[in-house]
Amino acid sequence: MLMKIRTTYSYLKLESRRYKRSLVSLITEVIKFSILRSIGPQYYLLAGMADKKMSWQEKCGHLSDADYHKALAVLNPKPYRKITQNKLTEKALLTLANIPTAKFIGFYHPSNGFDSEGRVLTNTTELEHLLSSYQDNKICIKLPEGSGGVGFFAGKIKIKKHENSGIIIQSLIKKNEKTLQQLLENYADLLANEGLLFESYVEQCPEYAKFNTSSVNTVRTWVLQTEQGINVIGAYFRIGRNGSLTDNGDGGGIMCPIDINTGTLDKGLLTSTPYREELTHHCDNHAQLEGIILSGWQDIISCSCETLRKLPYTRFAGLDVSMTRDGPVVIEINVQPDKDGAAYARIPSILLAQAACELKEINHG
User: Fold this and answer.
1) Cβ-count burial of 78 within 10 angstroms (0-12 exposed, 13-18 middle, 19+ buried)?
2) Residue 236: how many CB atoms within 10 A of its CB?
3) Is it the case that residue 163 has pLDDT exceeding 80?
4) What's the angle, vertex CA 45, arms to CA 44 and CA 49, rounded to 5?
């Protein structure tokens, strides 16, 4: 506890110098904020609340962890969350609702597996036969219950019959080649319980790839449905690091808050640091971040709102959307997105509590 206090104190000293505010006033405000809103200093630092430009009203527009989950309990009833928390059922819903998403190839499982045509997919012979029809195509492997990029793999299918090795999959990052059997060995402990989801690889458009070519860079939109309609209440752009397949913050990725009215990027943030370490350019390839307007922004807004409209018993979601040459594609639906995203992008999460209160009043007449 003492170490945590010392660390927080040192970060507040940094913020004091950066924003030219007295340390005493910052500490006083942190204590006041903690008492009134039940939000601790870590969130205060992530949201950059030491900034004089951020009004007290804006700061009070953020929910505590407890209030966030209370709102979620009303907006997104728990029995229905599993629909999108499992990637297989999520894929089924997206496909059925005609929402743009990566093409489903198959679900590989020793007893329950099936491909996109409904054929059995329970052994390596069946899987090899299926993947042979995707020669020279890029595919992805995901864990149905995976999160944060854990277990994700992307590669290109090759067939080398003359070497008697059958299906070969070349990693998109390391460029090394593995047989299908070698690749499956990496998932040996998970196959029996979870299985593996195979789908086509999403090719992002050049305007999005320029930020980092190795990862599919996505927009995370926070979408909320109220009696007044469905709206995007906040968003941020997630960019991967050099050599990384994913854009996740847990993997050192960069997050840029987005002006939801224009699609303009703000300074980038490294989520690996406990305060707002802002970047005007990508720290690996030096691609400009601040001030860039994302192409197809209104299409992303429309796609996000239409996706939420089609989700059963769900009034709030964090959607991961990629932009391709053909338009936006939904990568993933999060019905309980990380609340810290609201801190980084300065999203007024209090809107969730207001929507939940409104819904309770309607339900109780």
Assistant:
1) exposed
2) 28
3) no
4) 60
Q: Which two tokens stand for residue 211?
A: 């930020």
- Residue that is written with structure tokens 């299985």 in the block: 195
Q: State the pLDDT confidence band at 192, using cuts at 50, 70 and 90.
A: confident
Tell how far CA 261 is from the center of its chain: 21
Which amino acid, 237?
F
Q: What are the E-state strand segments in the chain?
A: 104-108, 114-115, 138-142, 153-159, 167-171, 177-179, 196-200, 218-226, 229-239, 254-259, 264-265, 268-270, 278-279, 316-324, 327-334
How far, in Å, CA of 164 to CA of 166, rounded? Answer: 6
When pLDDT is cut at 50, 70 and 90, the band that residue 289 belongs to is very high
Distance from chain centroid for Cα 272: 15
CB 68 within 8 A of CB 44: no
* pLDDT of 161 strictly over 70: no
Calpha distance 119→121 (Å, rounded): 6
CA torsion 233-239-240-242 (nearest 10°) is -170
Instruction: For residue 250, name the pLDDT band (cuts at 50, 70, 90).
Output: low
CA-CA distance, 266 to 284, in Å (whole number)? Answer: 18
- Give the C-alpha separation, 295 to 292, whole Å: 9
Yes or no: say if 334 and 318 are a contact pair by the CB < 8 Å rule: yes
The amino acid present at 261, given as its one-letter code, is: N
Cα–Cα distances (Å) from 349 to 71, 121, 252, 340, 354, in that order, read 10, 43, 24, 10, 9
Please provide the average confidence, as pLDDT, over all residues in the chain: 93
Q: Nearest CA to 339 among 110, 102, 70?
A: 70
Mean pLDDT of 67-81: 96
Where do the domains of the chain lie, and which CATH numbers do they carry? Answer: 2-59 (no CATH), 65-86+205-363 (3.30.470.20), 104-200 (no CATH)
pLDDT confidence of residue 236: 98
